[in-house]
Specification:
The chain is mostly helical. It has one domain (14-81). The protein has helices spanning 14-27, 31-50, 60-69, 74-81.
């Protein structure tokens, strides 16, 4: 595990604080570990969601057909050739 060297501070309402404390206790984690693990998990999911294209079911075939008919754009090809980031 990496060494924890950075510090965050934020304000919360009394209600938010009690809710987060209760959730941490029920998860069997310290408040710090709970907030960090949930925040990191949410950040990974948020970044992964921004890297995915979501298409409504009725439009998928048209989308894929348009991709097949399109000619490569050099900058897009360069981006497509980049390795996928490790979000774990």
């Amino acid at each position: 595990m990496s060494t924890l060297t950075r510090r965050f501070e934020f304000r919360a309402t009394d209600e938010d604080y009690e809710l987060i404390c209760q959730a941490a206790a029920e998860a069997g984690l310290s408040l710090s570990d709970y907030i960090r693990s949930r925040t990191v998990e949410d950040a990974r999911r948020e970044l992964a969601d921004r890297r995915r294209v979501r298409i409504a079911p009725g439009y998928a075939e048209a989308f894929y057909a348009a991709l097949e008919d399109a000619s490569p754009v050099s900058e897009l090809q360069r981006l497509a050739d980049l390795p996928e980031p490790d979000l774990s």
